[in-house]
Amino acid sequence: MNRFEEEFAAFCGVKHGVVVSSGTAALHLALATLGVGEGDEVIVPDLTFAATINAVLHANATPIIVDVDEESWCIDPNKILQAITEKTKAIIPVHVYGQPCDMDAIMKIADNFGLFVIEDAAEAHGALFKEKRVGCFGHISCFSFYANKVVTTGEGGMCLTNVDKLNDNMRVLRDHGMNKSKRYWHDVVGFNYRLTNMQAAIGVAQLERIEDMLAAKNKYEQDVKMTLAGMSNVVFQRDDLVNRKKIVWLTCILVNDGRRDEYVAKLNDCGIDTRPFFYPLSNMPIYQRYAIHPTKISKKLSAMGINLPSSQPLGAQALETLKSILSS
Ligand SMILES: *Cc1c(COP(=O)(O)O)cnc(C)c1O
Q1: pLDDT at residue 1 above 80?
Q2: Which fold has domain 210-326?
């Protein structure tokens, strides 16, 4: 367990790693450790996996949903500024689909307003912002090692921090809140968010191969881009944004002709296992009351996006099928 924590933290350029049982547990542990709770507002992007907002709700805090930026698909720093109130305590930027958020702008806002930043890096292991790995910017950053993530332990997650005190407190809270020197003595109400050593050993082995895995996924994405190059209805995820080097988690495309659902159905009929993008949180009734700010861009991107398979190469034939369906 210690070895995985040390090696993953070092990979991200962060001092401490606290391994936990899932990415959601990591987010919840981060919020609890920073003392975010009832009456506090936490700003989250509209386009993300629901675990981001669920963790805020489980911490009894109030999520405030804001829109994303059209080019990066990540939380828009200007929209963060507009959403800050006296109750705002933290921001959770999500490096969505492997794309780093604008961490300069976000950390500057956080410093100006005295807010915590919890990076949700569940989908972006190894991505870079200004040559530094995501996960090294926030007060705490959270990773998932779920089966579909870049590094996986089946289920699993990790919190990273450079702050010694936060590291100590996370370790206590992860393990039932038990005092580290007085066994069965509890100073705080904790959780059981431990990971097993067996899973951590898988994580160590996975981490050894991360560069190869990222290179392979990148190659699959390049194959798709070559195949679909020049098609006017297809837009690729940006990989040329200043200061950012994204990774490929899922190969993502947008189709701008309004026929996304038709394409997804046809591709699935032909055995090409695609998914639509995440639904905007603001579209789901259970989260609607937290969507007090407009989220036009997230709604637009969500309706256009397709995730293509990216854990195995699409063969030449599948690539041709993809092209013919998208040009039909
Ligand atoms: C996968 C994911 C999580 C949650 O991770 P689990 O390990 O499944 O709990 C959180 N945030 C984002 C953005 C994710 O993609």
Answers
A1: no
A2: Aspartate Aminotransferase, domain 1 (3.90.1150)
Give the mutation target among 146, 153, 281 for probing the ligand 1 site: most ligand atoms within 8 A of CB.
146
* Residue 64 in this model has a pLDDT that exceeds 80: yes
Close Cβ partners of 66 (under 8 Å, ≥ 6 residues apart): 43, 44, 45, 46, 75, 76, 79, 80, 82, 83, 293, 295
Q: How far apart are CA 295 and CA 227, in angstroms?
A: 32
Mutation test of ligand 1: which of 28, 58, 144, 193 has the most ligand atoms closer than 8 Å to its C-beta?
144
- Yes or no: say if 166 and 139 are a contact pair by the CB < 8 Å rule: yes
User: Domain 2-207, CATH 1.10.1200.10 — does that match?
Assistant: no
Helices 51-58 and 23-33: crossing angle in degrees, nearest 10, is 40
Taking the whole predicted model, whether its pTM rises above 0.85 is answered as yes
Closest Cα to residue 96, out of 252, 206, 220, 240? 252
Instruction: Name the token pair of 305.
Output: 């996006």
Residues with CB under 6 A from ligand 1: 22-24, 48-49, 51-52, 94, 120, 122-123, 144, 146, 157
Nearest CA to ligand 1 atom 2: 122
Q: Which residues of 212-251 are buried (b: 16+ CB within 10 A; e: fewer)?
A: ebbebbbebbebbeebbeeeebbbebebebeebbbbbbbb
Q: At what angle are helices 260-269 and 316-326 packed, to 10 degrees?
A: 150
- Cα gap 52→314, rounded to integer Å: 30
Task: Please state the domain extents for the chain.
Answer: 2-207, 210-326
- Cα(324) to ligand 1 centroid in Å equals 33
Mean pLDDT of 260-268: 96
Query: Residue 152 in 3-state DSSP?
Result: coil
